[in-house]
Amino acid sequence: MTDNSNHFEKLLIKNGLKRTGPRLQVLDILSNRDSATSQPYLEQVMGTEVDRVTLYRVLKAFEEKGIIHKVLDNHGTANYAICSGNCNANEHHDEHVHFNCNNCKKVYCLANVQIPAFKVPAGFKVENLNLIASGICAACADKD
Ligand SMILES: [Zn+2]
Ligand SMILES: [Zn+2]
Ligand SMILES: [Zn+2]
């Protein structure tokens, strides 16, 4: 556990979630990565300490509470990233562009790149917005 564990405990309490080892661990891992994290990656890192069903439930609860948001990469794999402070149990506000690197396959939140505003036809209501760009990320571009 890092120095953030106190902050994570408060976050759980604030959202009416009990402090459990797997929940704290998932928060710790997700906030220490510069890219979104898939469930298989979490399983790999957490090993046998947590079973798949528990992990799935932790992610689902976090998503419902507005703590993390889900991003599907180009292969349809779900990746999870910590939300900015504007999300809550009622609605998410993660209207930023996501970037899927074709080389390292990482999915990044481009938190400062907002999805441009657009109009939908009358009668349509947008409930979910997803804009994913793909290409080469800065870390990979640096390597050549
Ligand atoms: Zn969110
Ligand atoms: Zn990359
Ligand atoms: Zn994001």
From TrEMBL:
Keywords, comma-separated and alphabetical: DNA-binding, Repressor, Transcription, Transcription regulation, Zinc
Name of this chain's protein: Transcriptional repressor
Record keyword DNA-binding present: yes
Similarity remark: Belongs to the Fur family.
Organism, scientific name: Pedobacter rhodius
Pfam families: FUR
The keyword Transcription regulation is annotated on this UniProt entry: yes
